[in-house]
Structure formats: structure tokens, C-alpha cells
Amino acid sequence: MKVRHGSGNGSHQQCGPRTPETKNPEEVAAPNPALLARRRRLAGVAGLCGALLFFAGDMLFYGHLGSGAGFHQGLIATVTNASLVRLYAGGLVGPVAACLCIVGFWHVYLNVRPSQEPMARLMLVAFAVLMVFGSAIHVLWATRGFALKYCYGSDDAVCRALLKAVNSYWELAYNIGAVPGYVGAIVLFGLVLLGKTWYPRWTALANPAVLMLLSPLADRTPAPFGAVLSGGFTNLSIALFFLVSVWTTWRQVEE
């Protein structure tokens, strides 16, 4: 550091940039725990709304009253008679619902203890990828509905080939998208059972992957709501998961 001597009074003037003053850590406002808790709760509610919006989209596609066992027959009858507006609306809710669910999974991420940050990030990324696929799959179902509406039962070979191709493509996308979903669910299941989250251990039973094991029961549900339950079981399971998540962590204070 060079020092230049003054000419009259012997004072010293320092050259070069001044060292910035450091603030006392106590002067820096700490995050408000109540505000953080409120944001976490709202994120969970957003996830619940997203799952219910996905379910509403399902019902716009093929919702009808009937037994779970007769769901597939009712689906075809409903879609072939559905208006284009109904199919459009069913598909377009997908991206909005997916965004809300991603916010909801951020709520789940915040309920993992800080010591498990790497696993929490893996879980969050896996669930976010699931929702990206979920959005695409939901929009694509509208195309599947168009193919069913205009080609099901047709004698035209090209129309039948189109219907088969659309169905195969949708199923491929669905199966690929399910992989990150199961990864996230398995990570969350382990964290909850090991006590590495703010969730009670019993909430592992509300894990989406665990709830999906009950889907065969939906197919056995009688009329009039069996078809509704069978057709919307996946998204209703995610909605139940978010409901349990918000309920069991509502009073949790941020640390």
C-alpha cells in the first residue's frame, strides 16, 4: 500500500480502494420463521390444488358414473361422444396442474431435515421431472382422445394404424415418466421411515408409490363412483399425499 505525504500538515492520505465496512452479523435481519412456515404451507396447498386439477382434467377426458370393472368400456363411450371443447380443456389443464405440483414438491423438500440435503435435492429433482412428463402426458391424452373419437371401430386401415400408434406412444411416454416418480417416492419413503424428515413415520403409508399399490381395489369398486375412482386413482393418490403432507406439518416451525 503506497502512502503519499501531505505538504503542509504531515497528514497521510491512503491511495487505492477503500476496504468495505463489514456489517455486524446481528445487524443482518434473520429470516422470519413464521413467514417461512407460511410459504411452506402455501406450497403444500398449491400441490394439493395441482393434483386435484389433474384429476379434473381426467374427468374432462373420460369422467362418467359406473363401476370400476366397467371403466374402460365407459371410457370409450364417453370419449367417442365427448365434444372437442371438453377434450381441449382436459388437455390444457395439464401444464398448470404440473406447475402447481412442482411447487407442492418443493413443500415436501422443505420438510426434509437439513442434514439430508443431498437426498432431498435428488427427491425434488425426480419429482419435478415426473411432473414435466405428467404435463406432456396429460396434453398428449387429448390427442389420444381425438384418435379414439374419430378412429375407434373404424374400418379404415390408416385410421386403425393411427389409433394404435398414438396409444403406443402415449403408453411409452407414461412408462418413461413413471421412472423418476418411483425414484422420488422411494427416496422419500426411506427418509420418512428413518426419521430424516419432519413427517411422522406412519405417513410413509401415504407415499404415492404405496398408495398406487391399492389401485386394483379401485377397479373393484361398484357403481356409481367406481369408474370415477378407477379413472382418477393416480391423481387422487397424489392429492391424498399432499393433503397428509400439509396436515402433518402444518405446525412445524422452520429451523
SSE blueprint:
Layout: E1 3-5, E2 12-14, H1 33-62, H2 71-81, H3 84-110, H4 117-151, H5 157-193, H6 208-212, H7 215-219, H8 226-231, H9 233-249
Helix pairs in contact: 1-3, 1-4, 1-9, 2-4, 3-4, 4-5
End-to-end CA span: 44 Å
Number of helices: 9
Number of domains: 1
What is the residue-averaged pLDDT?
A: 90
Structural classification: mainly alpha
Count all strands and give the number: 2
Unreliable spans are 1-12
Helix content: 55-70%
Order of strands across the main sheet: 1-2
Radius of gyration: 27 Å
Largest sheet: 2 strands, antiparallel
Task: Report strand %.
Answer: under 5%
What is the overall shape? Answer: elongated
Sequence of secondary-structure elements: EEHHHHHHHHH
